[in-house]
């Protein structure tokens, strides 16, 4: 899966958690949780959804690396290689 497909998948899963979100509103370079009002439980549900959909392990130790949309896409891309 290339970076564009990964980004689309990430946004789709995010929109399941925050349906009021508009895809075009997201800036890849800004902290995601500042752009989308997600509490810690929503954030965890989002990461679990990514794990289940993409079959990628996301250990809790890596959560701090997943700040921006661009970070998440790059992380997932690296895990698929």
Describe the structure.
The protein is mainly alpha-helical and 81 residues long. The protein is built from 4 helices and no strands. The chain has helices at residues 3-17, 32-35, 40-54, 69-80. The N and C termini lie close together (10 Å). The mean pLDDT is 92.
What CATH first level would be assigned?
Mainly Alpha
Order of helices and strands: HHHH
Task: Output the CATH topology.
Answer: Non-ribosomal Peptide Synthetase Peptidyl Carrier Protein, Chain A
Mean pLDDT: 92
Describe, in short, the structure shown.
The chain has 81 residues and is mainly α.
Fold topology:
Layout: H1 3-17, H2 32-35, H3 40-54, H4 69-80
Key attributes of the depicted protein:
single chain; 81 residues; mainly alpha; Non-ribosomal Peptide Synthetase Peptidyl Carrier Protein, Chain A; 57% helix
